[in-house]
Amino acid sequence: MKWVGPPLYFQRAEIKAKVACAAVATRADMNIPHQGAAEVVQWMLSYGRRNSCMREFGAEMCRRIIAAGIPIWRGFCFVSTLHPEVSAAAYIFNRDAATAMRVVAGHDLSNSPEFIESPIAEVRRT
Fold this sequence. Notes:
The protein is an alpha+beta fold. It has helices at 12-22, 27-30, 35-45, 54-67, 113-116, 119-125, and strands at 74-80, 88-94, 101-105. It has one domain (12-24, 35-125). Helices cover 40% and strands 15% of the residues. The protein starts with 11 loop residues before the first helix and ends with a helix.
């Protein structure tokens, strides 16, 4: 089974540029409370955690993040499975789409060069 869906991985140069931009924020900036973010976290811990449909949960969480004034364009939620043919399921939220898109990956994905060099693989390694 092959990865189905749009290209999910950024080029390395783009990733380095984003990391460099993110590094500009100082530790003091990160400690300033953000009321909108606090409300999103409160929703996640109360009502959101009761939603057993990952697609609905992710889409609603991303909508709430945007409503809180945090500018995101895409959200990605990746969950490993115990399925014999499907290694993982992912939902991709795009700001311009009405709902999140579901994509699945076979067990061969983790050995593919596209995945090994991706930001997702780096997150899983760390």
